[in-house]
Amino acid sequence: MTKPKKTAPKLSVFQTFKTKNKEFTGEAMRQRGIIMHLAIETLPTKKTRTAIAHRLAEKNGTTWQNIYSGIFRDLDEILLPLEIVEESGRLPIKRGPKALQEQGVPYYQLTEGGLLVAASLSEMGKERIRIMSEFFEKNSNSKDKDLKNSILTLLKVAPNFVSSLLRRYVESYSEGKIDKLVPFDSEGVKKALDESLTIQRELLEGFSSLSSTEKEPILNFLKKVS
To answer: Is residue 15 a part of any domain in this protein?
Structure first.
């Protein structure tokens, strides 16, 4: 009897319910929580499976035992195989099974790709600047200095635009439209983005060519409708 083919792991941070396309699924919320926690936390003791479960349970008003199995599955079957997260080291323990005492408890960190995913999450807020700075420092494959400088500048003046750009990039990866999250370069971004960037570029180029008198009513209009 042939074994059924194993489903390829899929990143679900932007997965929404079919009937509620603005509401993230439980799996999406768990993966977002894991990635955001690892993006912010620095202590190894706070980056184990159990520590992550405790933190997410506290945020969601439940017990850590209720969500531990889901976090275990997200890490071992999705985030680790996709190289969004990697094991950073092991902590020694004095209690529990002998094998576990000898091997220690693993703790985790985000990879370069994981940093990109974290920066695409709107909940990260101002942390996105730090995360993208860290990403470009770690991403030795990125030789596109114009992209690096543009992203870091835009994060200061138009963070929602960058968040939208990165979201589309990560979504394209989740949908299989691009094979890998890194290297992050202009060619990869070009493959991932849709016509919305063309529209935004047209607006930016057109707006920058206007006089101050012409710009004012447009800015007032955009403030009213946004």
So the answer is: no
Name residues whose C-beta falls within 8 Å of residue 103's C-beta, 6 or more positions apart in sequence. 90
Residue 97 confidence (pLDDT): 64
Assess whether 94 and 138 both reside in one domain. no
pLDDT in tens, 187-207: 888 888 777 777 887 888 888
State the Cα–Cα distance between residues 154 and 146, nearest whole angstrom: 12
Place of tokens 């529209």: 199
Report d(CA 119, CA 159) in Å as an integer.
Answer: 10
Same domain for 214 and 136? yes
Dihedral sign (CA 178, 123, 64, 39)? positive
- The pair phi, psi for residue 90, each rounded to 5°, is -135, 140
Do 95 and 156 share a domain, yes or no?
no
Domain range enclosing 104: 26-110
Q: Is the peptide bond before 183 cis (omega within 30 degrees of 0)?
A: yes
Q: Quick check: is 11 in a domain?
A: no
The amino acid occupying position 190 is K
Q: Can you tell me the distance from the alpha carbon of 184 to that of 111, in angstroms, rounded to the nearest whole number?
A: 13
